[in-house]
Design brief:
Shape: globular
CATH architecture: 3-Layer(aba) Sandwich
Radius of gyration: 17 Å
Strand order of the largest sheet: 3-2-1-4-5-6-7
Oligomer: single chain
CATH topology: Rossmann fold
Helix content: 40-55%
Number of strands: 7
Strand content: 5-15%
Bound molecules: NADP nicotinamide-adenine-dinucleotide phosphate
Order of helices and strands: EHEHEHEHHEHEHHE
CATH class: Alpha Beta
Distance between the termini: 45 Å
Largest sheet: 7 strands, parallel
CATH superfamily: NAD(P)-binding Rossmann-like Domain
Length: 256
Amino acid sequence: MGILSGKIGLVMGVANDRSIAWAISEKLLSEGAELAFTHLPGPSSQRRVQNLVEQYKPKLVLPCDVQKDEDIAAVFDDIARSYGRLDLVLHSIAFAPPQELRNPYLQMSRAGWHLAMDISVYSLVAVCRAAAALMTDGGSIATISYYGGEKVFPGYNVMGVCKAALEHSVRYLAWDLGRQRIRVNAISAGPMRTLSAAGVPGFDQMREHAARKSPLGRNVEPADLANAGLYLLSDLSSGITGEVLHVDCGYNIVGL
Ligand code: NAP
């Protein structure tokens, strides 16, 4: 028995065992949650995710490109058919065209900007809307942000603009869903070496700087994010919504 026994969850954004979503998923599973997973459509993503999650024997491992409304609808239809309800959702998805991140933000193309915003921000709105319909007994939704949404990190560029929009979406979604007892929060994670992070120019310097400057004198680890994910997605955080929780070893409080 764990604190999530009997809870049904959906995790979107596991790519491999280094994904932030995977660290949080393992924690949720260890506390008794039953999880469904999504992966980008296509045989290689499906194989990657299926191989990783099969040890936990999930009932649903579903394709979903969050750019497609029909994919999102199909995922929540499957969850409705299998479980009839939903208690928690982890949204851990972002994308920006890597070649665009190599140029100054000033040079950002219209198409690249829309693509990054669609996948990294609008998807949370669409997912919250679909999830809310199944969260008949309240629920908790969490997404993953970065401090580059508050301050300028050269190279993070459009992703920083996306994270600013994501964090403010969290507040508006928390407002819209609060009376249904559905909470929406974000974790602002310190830099972690993942597939997505590999596309951010200067990422290793960001990590070195974060470890040097943080009060805790180190970089964030998967367990730090797993614990925070459990907190926000369980009743441990029952009175908290619209919040951006920094899980960054304190990096954001230091002014030098
Ligand atoms: P990750 O393992 O690469 O996860 C990103 C996920 O987004 C992948 O599963 C990817 O699928 C998925 N994705 C991309 N486009 C998609 C689409 N159109 N539809 C559905 N899924 C899509 O990297 P991560 O670092 O854990 O990233 C997770 C979240 O944490 C992101 O929001 C990221 O911005 C945020 N974050 C990361 C860090 C960090 O330092 N790593 C710090 C703060 C915040 P595929 O791999 O199959 O393409």
